[in-house]
Design a protein that fits this description.
mainly beta, Histone H3 K4-specific methyltransferase SET7/9 N-terminal domain, nine-stranded antiparallel sheet, globular
Length: 94
């Protein structure tokens, strides 16, 4: 388990310089938790973010952003399933 400058505690694969890389899980002091793929210290590939407010995003990440196909379930029960770009839903989704 390692602490990072972004306030996260991380468990998982790393490369020699300590960067998160491969499969792993980070928990931040604000209560957010990410489980999934990392590339060079950024969320990238498939993963799930459980936000402290109760929202959950499952899907693709690119350079630390929700990007591509995913599903966002809000704490209030509404769900958006579809494409994401720059951390935001794109289009109507399902």
């Amino acid at each position: 388990m390692c602490s990072y400058i972004d306030g996260a505690i991380y468990e998982g694969e790393r490369i020699s310089n300590g960067m998160r890389h491969g499969k792993g899980m980070s928990k931040w002091t604000n209560g957010n938790k990410y489980t999934g793929d990392w590339v060079l210290d950024l969320m990238a590939g498939e993963g799930m973010m459980e936000y402290a407010n109760g929202d959950i995003y499952k899907g693709t990440w690119v350079e630390g952003r929700m990007e591509g196909k995913g599903e966002l379930e809000l704490e209030n029960g509404s769900v958006y399933s579809g494409e994401f770009k720059d951390n935001a839903p794109m289009g109507k989704g399902h």
